[in-house]
Write a structure and sequence with these properties.
- This protein is of the alpha+beta class and 256 residues long.
- The chain has one domain (3-244).
- Helices cover 36% and strands 14% of the residues.
- The protein has a four-stranded antiparallel sheet with strand order 2-3-7-4, sandwiched between helices. A two-stranded antiparallel ribbon has the order 1-8. A two-stranded antiparallel ribbon has the order 5-6.
């Protein structure tokens, strides 16, 4: 059940999103959540407030969380076990190429939805920064967390690797967010969570360390020197575990 205080219908958003996904040759997921009340870091909250100024002064904003999924062969290009270097794993760059392609497609989908419904699109990722910052925290003032809005919209849950895990594709996806004027609120979604699965922690020694692992991930990505700022080993093993537990179904989330 979706409540609607905007000039457009949720079905319009879904239909447009489906057309854009088909044009991109990707399966996609979409969910809605109120933009207000979502917990962001203080600097990200300030960044978002400035971004939303251009939408005027509506009483409410809706966050449309969007995901485009990777293809199976792109996940299978990632090494299936830990390796400290890229030596002997030349196919890894196939995943790096897919990362860039999916980000580009997702940027187009988000911008097109925003233009169609009078919103603002937040790009999928900040590229080219991994070797230009001294610490991962330096990203925060320049972006919002798509994962926070994906959780709020019910696309997935936060896995032990801190990525969004969906029932349809695990973490094998990229996220963007479109902010729309007005209120479109979805009912809650029941998600299974990780349960007792620890596959990502077992495959990656960085994730197994105490404390915030994000800086360790940034340094590893920089050291790997792939064609994009990626690693993906935890993504592949999580994707495999979710697939093993899946009972099938279409990875095209409905809005109603």
């Amino acid at each position: 059940m979706v409540t609607n205080s905007t000039k457009f219908a949720p079905d319009d958003i879904l239909a447009c999103f489906r057309r854009l996904c088909a044009g991109a040759g990707r399966q996609g997921l979409i969910g809605l959540a109120p933009a207000e009340g979502v917990h962001l870091l203080t600097e990200q909250h300030g960044y978002l407030k400035e971004r939303l100024r251009s939408l005027g002064s509506p009483d409410r904003f809706t966050a449309a969380s969007l995901a485009l999924l990777y293809h199976d062969h792109e996940m299978q290009a990632i090494p299936g076990r830990w390796t400290a270097t890229r030596t002997g794993a030349d196919g890894w760059n196939d995943y790096a190429g897919a990362y860039e392609e999916v980000n580009g497609a997702l940027d187009h989908v988000a911008e097109s939805l925003a233009a169609r419904f009078g919103g603002i699109a937040e790009q999928p990722t900040l590229a080219g920064w991994v070797d230009k910052v001294g610490h991962v925290s330096e990203y925060s003032p320049h972006c919002i967390s798509h994962r926070v809005f994906a959780e709020a919209a019910g696309l997935g849950w936060r896995g032990r690797h801190s990525l969004i895990v969906t029932p349809e594709a695990g973490p094998a996806l990229r996220l963007a967010t479109v902010f729309l004027p007005g209120s479109l609120v979805e009912a809650g979604v029941d998600l299974p969570g990780c349960g007792d699965c620890r596959a990502c922690l077992e495959v990656c020694p960085i994730l197994g360390k105490l404390g915030d692992h994000r800086e360790g991930c940034r340094r590893r990505i920089d050291a790997l020197g792939l064609d994009a700022e990626v690693c993906g080993i935890c993504v592949r093993v999580c994707w495999e575990q979710v697939r093993a537990r899946s009972v099938g179904g279409q990875p095209q989330r409905q809005l109603d």
